[in-house]
Design brief:
The structure is a single chain. The chain is an alpha+beta fold. It has three domains: about 20-320, DD-peptidase/beta-lactamase superfamily (Beta-lactamase, 3-Layer(aba) Sandwich), CATH 3.40.710; about 330-405, no CATH class; about 435-480. It is built from 14 helices and 17 strands. Helix 4 (about 90-100) packs antiparallel against helix 6 (about 135-145) and helix 7 (about 145-160) packs across helix 8. The protein is elongated, with a radius of gyration of 39 Å.
């Protein structure tokens, strides 16, 4: 029965293969006049950026270098051009599996998962009804590029390959992919299945946030256990020559921590490589590379040149250690130097994990900052501080309020008296009374007092300049003195004048 099924499958796939090859508009659109030399001499857009290090020529028609932690584009050659990705599609498939499935979850291979792929495409010969875990499927996808495992994982996540393709496109849009449309989870040729080097870098940037992805995609070899349909183990090898020496050790690179290969007759060679250099997580994507004849396929030579270019011309710079214009230190206002109160934490802090990527000959001050305030009420982040250099975004960090403006201070009573009989054991921790002090309220109170004192001093100065007595007691005493003075001398003079006038007859 298995023999009949395999014969039927072979005939069906042969018919589909011929019909696809000769009727596909993508195949017809392939221009045989574009030689490796023409691709090699195509324009590198990033070389036209002002004050930007010039990058190397590569045989790939499209290529990009992205620094993953900041999203900085270091090199761009036709990076937004739509192209068929081939098996690097599977990076998105594995990403969605990690986001939606448990690794120990069992996957049962359906008839469609096994028999809907081309017979001579990449696979590990799984049978209908065979059971693997999600983790085992992901190793098979990333190391051996197993198409039937991609189908099985897609069905496990979304119920069908078609529904999974919709999910792939939704997730790509969320990641900012502007030139991507997927129709399947494996990357076999389809005129509606395309992406760009830039979009693949964005997808990979998200995938390597998962430590499990790094582990799986960076494993040189993996042994698949016997299953309910297979009695023997299967040794699987990573196809990426910078990770595995299964075929050659010429391109091995210990800075490369994961990657994925791809090839179809339409897409030609595609490659995603992730490496850590100078503290930077570099994502290199190259698409549409073909053999140069006597030199072979310069896939890994191009990638090595791009990695060297990035590590020799760029470095990572901490924003928190260099930026001094966007912090407000609460401690600077309320630090009394007292061991009782100590120094308070800042009211506004900067995320210390923020970096910018700069050319090695550029200073941090050369980057142009931009502060953008956030409106979200449920977030501690109050603003985002981003930087540009040569017109390119090179990194960002966040400014946020500290967790709690109320700080704890220790006020411990020291008692030198003799211990009473029922005292606590000597090894017991001393009891500490905590008093919470809201430094914001203290600050407002201090400012109010200072303002009031300033007003009083101003009024006092005015009174002194214009000889105005402000003390009500002194004002009453002065009035009384004036009255008494008039009643003694002035009054006697007034009465004597009155008597003289009366004597004269007036």
């Amino acid at each position: 029965m298995k023999f009949i099924n395999r014969c039927r499958r072979t005939v069906l796939l042969s018919v589909l293969c011929f019909s696809t090859v000769f009727s596909s508009p993508v195949f017809a659109a392939e221009n045989p006049d574009i030689t490796p030399e023409i691709r090699y001499n195509m324009e590198i857009q990033s070389n036209a950026w002002e004050n930007w290090p010039a990058g190397p020529q590569v045989y790939a028609e499209s290529a990009i270098i992205m620094e993953a932690s900041t999203g900085t584009i270091l090199y761009s050659k036709n990076a937004d051009q739509q192209m068929e990705p081939a098996s690097i599609t599977k990076i998105m498939t594995v990403l969605l599996a990690l986001e939606n499935l448990d690794l120990d979850e069992e996957v049962t291979f359906s008839h469609n998962a096994v028999y809907s792929i081309e017979y001579d495409s990449s696979h590990i010969a799984r049978d209908e009804g065979e059971i693997l875990t999600v983790e085992e499927c992901l190793y098979a996808i990333m190391l051996e590029s197993a198409n039937e495992c991609s189908n099985a994982v897609a069905e496990q996540v979304s119920g069908s390959v078609e529904a999974f393709a919709d999910l792939m496109n939704e997730r790509a849009a969320e990641l900012g992919c502007a030139n991507t449309h997927f129709t399947n989870p494996h990357g076999l040729p389809n005129k509606e299945h395309y992406t760009s080097a830039h979009d693949m870098a964005l997808i990979t940037q998200e995938a390597i946030k998962y430590e499990k992805f790094r582990q799986i995609a960076g494993t040189p070899r993996y042994t698949l256990r016997a299953t309910n349909k297979k009695d023997e183990e299967l040794l699987m090898n990573n196809h990426h020559f910078m990770i595995s020496q299964n075929r050659t050790s010429r391109f091995l690179d210990d800075t490369v921590f994961c990657g994925k290969t791809g090839y179809t007759s339409v897409a030609l060679n595609t490659l995603v490589t992730c490496a850590t250099r100078n503290g930077m997580d570099l994502v290199v994507v190259s698409m549409k590379t073909q053999s140069t004849g006597e030199k072979g396929v310069p896939l890994y030579t191009d990638t090595a040149n791009l990695l060297n270019y990035a590590s020799e011309n760029f470095h990572r710079v901490s924003i928190a250690e260099n930026e001094t214009n966007f912090t407000i230190g609460q401690g600077e206002l309320f630090d009394t130097g007292s061991p009782v109160f100590g120094t308070a934490n800042p009211m506004i802090e900067m995320d210390k994990s923020g970096y910018v990527i700069l050319p090695v000959n550029a200073a941090f001050s050369d980057a142009a900052p931009r502060l953008e305030f956030q409106d979200a009420d449920d977030s501690r982040v109050i603003a985002t501080l981003s930087y540009t250099y040569a017109g390119q975004t090179i990194g960002a960090t966040s400014l946020y309020l500290t967790d709690d403006p109320i700080h704890d201070f220790n006020f411990q009573k020291t008692d030198n008296s003799e211990a009473v009989p029922d005292a606590a054991p000597a090894d017991a921790e001393p009891k500490v009374n905590l008093i919470k002090i809201n430094l914001r309220i203290v600050g407002i109170a201090v400012c109010s007092v200072l303002l009031l004192l300033t007003v009083l001093l101003f009024i006092r100065k005015l009174a002194k300049d214009f000889e105005i007595e402000l003390n009500p007691v002194r004002r009453w005493q002065n009035w009384k003195d004036q009255k008494n003075a008039f009643g003694s001398q002035s009054r006697r003079h007034y009465r004597s004048r009155k008597r003289r006038r009366h004597r004269r007859g007036f």
